């Protein structure tokens, strides 16, 4: 897979982006991840964890409420614990969805006739070449498709080696059209004389 060229720190305006482009570079597509629903692998654990906390919190709250008349001190303790567990459970269920939507809004994807650009919020630029591998992940149910074409090293390690994660246009509704556009650009480059795209 392709490796990113130089990166910059934060999301850029369209004017700043165009300043980075080459003279003949043209915008083909731009988009953002679908923010309607977080993928199950990101929200599933927290949904289960939060549901358990909500269930236990509901039991504690009911026990505290029923015991308050005969044992006020014990009832208040159970009520307080129940409310804390309920709030923690609701937070565990909703927080991943809120964070996912915020992250989706901060991610911007651009495809030009020369490269693919991903800002999440770091700017990563991947030149489109005839040999660039394009991994198309089709949509599944409510989850939009993705197009991966590069890799980056993360700060995590596995057996003392950095974990590599794929980079691309994630969860975009126009994934098939974007893949087709990238492959058309690659095919055009293959047909050009070697000197034209070196």
From TrEMBL:
Keywords: Membrane, Transmembrane, Transmembrane helix. The keyword Membrane applies. The chain crosses the membrane at residues 45-65, 77-100. This is DUF304 domain-containing protein.
């Amino acid at each position: 897979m392709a490796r990113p060229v130089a990166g910059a720190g934060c999301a850029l305006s369209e004017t700043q982006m165009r300043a980075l482009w080459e003279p003949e570079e043209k915008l083909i597509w731009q988009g953002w991840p679908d923010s309607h629903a977080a993928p199950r692998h990101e929200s599933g654990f927290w949904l289960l964890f939060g549901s358990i906390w909500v269930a236990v919190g509901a039991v504690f709250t009911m026990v505290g409420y029923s015991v308050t008349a005969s044992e006020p001190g014990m009832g208040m303790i159970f009520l307080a614990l129940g409310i804390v567990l309920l709030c923690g459970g609701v937070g565990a269920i909703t927080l991943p969805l809120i964070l996912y939507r915020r992250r989706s809004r901060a991610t911007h994807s651009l495809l030009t006739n020369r490269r693919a650009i991903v800002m999440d919020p770091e700017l990563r630029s991947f030149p489109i070449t005839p040999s660039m591998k394009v991994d198309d992940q089709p949509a599944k149910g409510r989850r939009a498709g993705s197009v991966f074409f590069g890799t980056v090293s993360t700060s995590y390690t596995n057996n003392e080696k950095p974990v590599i994660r794929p980079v691309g246009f994630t969860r975009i509704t126009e994934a098939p059209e974007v893949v087709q556009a990238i492959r058309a650009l690659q095919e055009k480059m293959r047909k050009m004389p070697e000197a034209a795209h070196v």
